[in-house]
Amino acid sequence: VPMKKNDAPKIESAQKIPPEGDRTLEDPKKKNGSPGTKVLTALICLAVLTYFGVQIYNAYADPLISAVAYSYQVEDTVSVTGFLVRDELVLEDSGGGLLRLTRSEGERVSAGGRVAQIYSDQASLDRQMEIDKLQTQLDQLNYASEAASASEAALQLDSQIAERLVSMRRAVTSDRLDTASDSVKELEALVLRRDYTYTDAEELKAQTADIQSKLSALKAQSAGSSRKVTAPKAGLYSAVVDGYETVLTPQMLETLTPSVLSNLKPSGVSSDLGKLVLGDTWYYAATLSAADAKEIDEGSTETLRFAKGVDRDLNVTVQSISAEENGRVTVIFRGRTYLAQLTLLRQQSADVVLSSVSGIRVPQQAIRVNENGVTGVYCVVGVEARFKPVKVVWSDDNEYALVRGEGVDATALRPGDQVILSAGGLEDGAVVSYTG
């Protein structure tokens, strides 16, 4: 049966199916979060924000501020300038020749002891210097020969060399070049001695015999070519003569006034031989204002600190205070110690320490009075604030104070403790967040 054109069968278009890889499956339960999850998330965020907010507020509103407590000393001093006075004897020698000193600065010399050697000519002096050099080498060889163990001797010498280096550095730092020069000589001798320690025994004997032979010949040649200068009295030797030896004497101190002291001039006395400092007492004459001198009493013991030359404080006695002259007085201090270190000093600046207080330095802001009326400071101990009672021994009323710990064991304030200056909710046992 023929079909009509309009009677053709209708074929519905097939549904388009996506490829396998483009298919997605959605869980309708995860498409929108549940109300419980949203609430929990909001609570966590709120807690985090609250925590950081509290920390920021505490940091800016009432932060923990601390400082280190440390040992300190406060002194009441008066700065002065004066002259050192000693009983001194200038050595004189009328003979000519080449002078060689045999004593070091500040060395004690007995009566009749040699202080210098005078040689007739340069050849005699050179011969003596060669004798001294050979004698030093002979001493080193004898030491090496008598050493029981080379290794033990070397270790001992290493220690002595290190000590001598420290002594030399200390002498240079304190401007005692005379002492430094002696240290250099001793150091050279120690180094030579150490070099000989590992030398063969037979070689040591041969070198010793050779040096002894040379020494004998040189000593025979030098006989009668020099003469020695001896000390007429016992005392400390000093190579420096500055002209004040006859101007400043212990006998004229009782009548010394500020005007006389300020107009002192050295005499023309000089000597290449040096001088002797007699006795064990020295004096320091200084001019002070009458107001400062009121804090000093005759016969009292004071502390004198020289600006240079001596690296320690000296205990002195106030021997006398002159009458006032134009608002100033002359004070005579008397000392009996460390004279050997003062032989090179004459006009010298110094501090007179009238009083001193020692304690633990803390800021004024750290000192508090607790509920029981006890004065103390709070310290950071671990993560807690601990109250430590103290006694204030000095205060400047502004910045800091000196205190002493009143507690025992763990409650006592000690140098190095972290004292609290500012913190919120400060009380004994309170937990603090210490960050430095």
Give the topology, please:
Layout: H1 28-31, H2 35-61, E1 65-68, E2 70-90, E3 98-101, E4 108-109, E5 114-119, H3 122-146, H4 150-173, H5 177-197, H6 201-222, E6 226-230, E7 235-238, H7 258-262, E8 275-289, H8 290-293, E9 301-306, E10 314-321, E11 328-335, E12 347-363, E13 367-369, E14 375-381, E15 384-395, E16 400-405, E17 418-422
Antiparallel strand pairs: 1-17, 2-8, 2-12, 3-5, 4-7, 5-6, 7-8, 8-11, 9-10, 9-12, 10-11, 12-16, 13-14, 14-15, 15-16
General description of the model:
By secondary structure, the chain is α+β, with helices and mostly antiparallel strands. It has three domains: 74 residues, Beta Barrel (conserved putative lor/sdh protein from methanococcus maripaludis s2 fold); 130 residues, Efflux pump adaptor protein, beta barrel domain (Elongation Factor Tu (Ef-tu), domain 3, Beta Barrel); 104 residues, no CATH class. The protein has eight helices and 17 strands. Strands 2-8-11-10-9-12 form a six-stranded antiparallel β-barrel. β14 and β15 form a beta hairpin. α3 crosses α5 and α4 packs antiparallel against α5. The N terminus is likely disordered.
Full CATH superfamily name of the largest domain: Efflux pump adaptor protein, beta barrel domain
Number of strands: 17
Radius of gyration: 44 Å
State the domain count.
Answer: 3
Structural classification: alpha+beta
Quick check: average pLDDT? 83
CATH architecture of the largest domain: Beta Barrel
Main sheet specs? 6 strands, antiparallel, barrel
Instruction: List the strand order in the largest sheet.
Output: 2-8-11-10-9-12
Shape: flat
Q: Percent of residues in beta strands?
A: 25-35%
Q: What's the quaternary structure here?
A: single chain
